[in-house]
Amino acid sequence: MLTGGRLARLGAACGAVTAAACLPALLRNPYALYLADLSLIYGLLVLGYDLASGYTGMISFGHAALFGIGGYVSAILVTHAGMSFWLTLPLGAAAAGLSGALVGLTAHRLREEYLAMGTLAFGTIVWLVMLNWVNVTGGPMGIPALPPPPPVSFGPVVLRFEGYRGFYYVLLGAVVLAVLVTRHVVDSRFGRACLAIREDEVVAETLGITLRYHKTLMFAIGAAYSGVAGVLFVHLLRVASPESFDFSQSVTILTMNMLGGMGSIPGALLGAVLVTLLSEALRAVPLYRMVLYGLLLVVMMVFFPYGLAGAARVAAEGLRGLLSRARGGRAVGERASEPF
Amino acid sequence: MAVILAQLANGVVLGSIYALMAIGYTMVWNVLAFINWAHGEVYMMAAFVTVTLYGAGVSLLPAALLGVAGGTLTGVLMERIAYRPMRQAPKLNLLIGALGISIFLRNAAQLVWGPSPRRLPSPLLDRGVDIGVVHVSLQQVLILAVGLLAMVLLQLFVRRTTLGRAMRAAAEDMETASLMGINTERVIVATFAIGSALGGVAGVLIAPLYLVYPTMGVLAGLKGFTASVLGGMGSVTGAMVAGLVLGIAESLGAGFISSGYRDAVAMVVLLLVLLVRPEGLFGHGVVSQARQRA
Q1: Residue whose C-alpha is closest to residue A39's, from A270, A296, A263, A286
Q2: Contact status of B256 with chain A (Cβ, < 8 Å)
Q3: What are residue A154's DSSP bridge partners?
Q4: Smallest CA–CA separation between B50 and chain A, in Å?
Q5: Is the minimum CB–CB distance between A2 and chain B shorter than 8 Å?
Q6: Whether residue B49 has pLDDT greater than 80
Q7: CA dihedral A34, A275, A57, B39 (to 10 degrees)
Q8: Residue in B92, B107, B267 closest to A59 by CB
Q9: Per-residue pLDDT band at B198 (split at 50, 70, 90)
């Protein structure tokens, strides 16, 4: 059954996809197209990150490692084994998903700062391997000269993906798919169990929810998104290098998630786009960029703990309360303080 | 044999630094049940204040003391500006806010002081004593002495003074302590001040041995945290012992395996402790304590 609210949301989603599909036609500048591509990649990353952070309450400080695993698996298979991009894409996703499952499985008992520290250690170790295992990963130089996705032909129709414009549609497809999967997962029985874990692990356990299974699976699904993002990222940049997957990348993902607001699909995408544009604006001064991320994290946590999505929700509730009070109805503004 | 003994001496010295750092984590955990992620930045700020003042012509001892004061101020301000408004917020927000502070300070320091490392000279570096076959510089002796002294003073403070008792009461149960007339706000500020002062002491003491640079607090913070987890979160004695254990393990690991893996030792120890014995060597159930708090 489609209620009014759901219908409106569906309409907004269709509108957003249409607008996003038309965007490349408006962007003549290749740099603008590149930024649009980058925003979509980060959108995919944050959507995956949010599955763990926003919907299960697992904060990771080493998410860039999963992003990097996807990227490096594809880069290695394409250059050393000569595989096609279309084959390495699912393989990269699977590799990241499996690594995510391993992390989730070993870390399901850790919470909050312990999980954060554990994932930080994991991320650092993976990054050190990328940096030092020169024979396989190319060391600090990385793996250069990665090809773009080869064309796909359906009979007479040949789809080409060279250049930022062609890439954009691959990315958009991936993001749309990710949004659909997220919606489906979150609305399922499994997703609701994860929400219960986020709210209170002890209560969730007494309700018969197994922490190990739910946390591991959710972390793995999010990691698979990151793997896809990683594969797309290295083929967009044409190079897989360790500097793309260090701790500051994990911080970037976290900042996007916090800015947009945890547990919100529009929030995840908005945070990704805003921070991507912001960091490109500050590209010449990377130090200011990190200073700003730090400040942004603190300010968001102190004043807008539920991000822009949360702030928008509060504003909307307030407005609705104001309207209904003007009409003489009951105020519903009270609910605005409820976070999610 | 001489090499092993030298590594051992080195490890003890490093270990006292980690112990000083670990105490800061553990004290804040005791009172607020949260990990101050930005504690490594206190260590860095103290070292930078000292180097800057020394460079501006202040003589070494006052510069060092002012450096410790700077570190203390950094810790207290963190609490006042960021952690206090967030105290009622969910735990995750505090955690992320603390990471934000740490990233902010680290990069702000790089903007102000530049990325290149600086030297803090010390008259104690060149002089040394020979213990058996091992040569130890006086700076290393000083680190060990100050470290031990700070730990003894801390124990006396926590056990004998009124504020120290208030601190222990607040660690036991913040709400009840407050009902008994303890000014818990004051206790929290004092906790941050003392923990940060010890972190600052560590930063200033280590500065002549290693260099002073904006990211120096990252690994020191991580290792201090590792030591506090290994010792059992919340146990000051545990933090001291575990700091020394970690320092020695690391130095021996660097000596026996490879110096490239020196920092990996702490990471592996951290992961092992987290997975096998999260309550640490001296702790009594971190999880139950956290639950109680929540």
Answers
A1: A270
A2: no
A3: A157
A4: 23
A5: no
A6: yes
A7: 130
A8: B92
A9: very high
Interface test with B, best of A296, A297, A340 (most B CBs within 10 A): A297
Taking CA–CA distances from A124, the nearest residue in chain B reads B267
For chain B, what is the domain count? Answer: 1
How far apart are the C-alpha atoms of B24 and A328, rounded to whole Å? 56
CB contact under 8 A, B270 and A117: yes
Q: Which of A242, A245, A241 is nearest to A227 (CA)?
A: A245
Contact A62, A110 (CB under 8 A): no
Distance CA A36, CA A147 (A): 20
Task: Give A303 to chain B, closest Cα distance, Å.
Answer: 9
- Predicted TM-score of the model (pTM): 0.81
Rounded CA gap, B220 and A311, in Å? 37
Q: How far apart are CA A303 and CA A106, in angstroms?
A: 34
Beta-bridge mates of residue A152: A159
Inter-chain residue contact A251 with B82, CB threshold 8 Å: no
Sequence-distant (≥ 6) Cβ neighbours of residue A226 within 8 angstroms = A44, A45, A48, A49, A63, A66, A67, A70, A96, A100
Q: Confirm if B236 and B27 have CB atoms less than 8 A apart.
A: yes
Neighbours of A140 (CB within 10 A): 12
Return the exposure string of A44-82: e unless at least 16 CB atoms fall within 10 Å of the residue's CB, then b: bbbbbbbbbbbbbbbbbbbbbbbbbbbbbbbbbbbbeee
Q: By CB neighbour count within 10 A (0-12 exposed, 13-18 middle, 19+ buried), where does B63 fall?
A: buried
The answer to whether the CB atoms of B274 and A113 lie below 8 A apart is no
Q: What angle do CA B23, A57, A231 make, to 5 degrees?
A: 105
pLDDT at residue A32, rounded to an integer: 87
ipTM: 0.79
Q: With an 8 Å Cβ cutoff, is B219 touching chain A?
A: no
CB crowding A325-338: b at 16 or more within 10 Å, else e: eeeeeeeebeebee
A113 touching B (Cβ < 8 Å) = yes
Residue A333 predicted with pLDDT over 60: no
Domains in chain A: ranges and CATH = 27-280 (1.10.3470), 307-340 (no CATH)
Domain membership of residue B59 as a residue range: 2-293
**Is A43 within 8 Å of A233 (Cβ atoms)?**
no
Which residues in A lie closer than 8 A to residue B40 (C-beta atoms)?
Answer: none
**pLDDT value of residue A136:** 83
Model confidence at A1, pLDDT cuts 50, 70, 90, reads low
pLDDT digits (tens, 9 = 90+) for A19-60: 887 788 787 788 888 899 999 999 999 999 999 998 998 989
CA B135 from centre of chain: 27
Whether chain B has a CB inside 8 Å of the CB on A282: the answer is no
Candidates B29, B41, B103, B272: best to mutate against A (most CBs of A within 10 A) is B103
Beta bridge partners of B212: B118
More confident residue, A202 or B289: A202
Nearest to B225 among A109, A117, A258 (CB): A117
Taking every pair of C-alpha atoms in chain B, what is the biggest distance, in angstroms? Answer: 58
Distance from CA of A53 to the nearest CA of B (A): 9
Do A54 and A263 form a contact (C-beta atoms < 8 A)? yes
Q: What is the CATH number of the domain that holds B157?
A: 1.10.3470
